[in-house]
Structure formats: C-alpha cells, structure tokens
Design brief:
By secondary structure, the protein is mainly α. It is built from five helices and no strands.
C-alpha cells in the first residue's frame, strides 16, 4: 500500500513527509500543557521541566517545518501541477473513484 501511495499521491513525497511530521509535532505540542499539569499534580518538578522543554523544541520544529514547507509550496508546486493539468481529475481535484494513475494515463 505504501508503494501505491508514493506512486499515486497528489503531492510529492517530501511535501507529504513534511506535512506528516508537522502534524505529529503540532499534536505533541498541544498535549504538553496536560503533561505539565499531571507532573505538577504529582509534584515532579523534573517532569515539569522536561515537558516544557519538549514543548519548546516541538514548537521550534513546527516553525522550521512550516517555513520549509512554504518554500516547497512556492517553488516546487508540491507536485500538484500534474494533477491540476489532468483532464481526468474532477472539479474537486480528485481522480474518478476507483481509477488508478495508470488508468488515467491510458
């Protein structure tokens, strides 16, 4: 399945990877506040500091990922150009249901 996703994806692999990583970092950064509360409730100052440090690192990573993703989207087109010019893609930007890229190309 992973090979099929890589071959038929609507964006380049690296853009997809950046988006996936960005999503993971955003989710993690959003949870650290809860982790800090748990650590404070158990009076573990070391845990509080660790979670705050992790949050800072993830927020910095989010900023870096966003910045680099913007570069890809503005310079490379994220690999969406082929889909945008494909006459078999419907008005919402999706290929016909159940059709593979090979079938679209034929």
């Amino acid at each position: 399945m992973d090979e099929k996703l890589r071959a038929e994806g609507p964006v380049s692999n690296v853009v997809h990877d950046l988006l996936q990583t960005l999503n993971e970092k955003i989710d993690a950064a959003a949870r650290y506040g809860l982790y800090v509360e748990d650590a404070e409730a158990e009076s573990c100052a070391a845990c509080v500091e660790i979670f705050r440090q992790c949050e800072r690192h993830d927020r910095n990573d989010v900023a870096r990922l966003l910045s680099h993703l913007r570069e890809h989207l503005s310079t490379v087109g994220a690999g969406v150009d082929a889909w945008a010019d494909d006459p078999t893609v419907d008005e919402e930007g999706a290929p016909p249901r159940g059709q593979t890229s090979a079938e679209r190309a034929a």
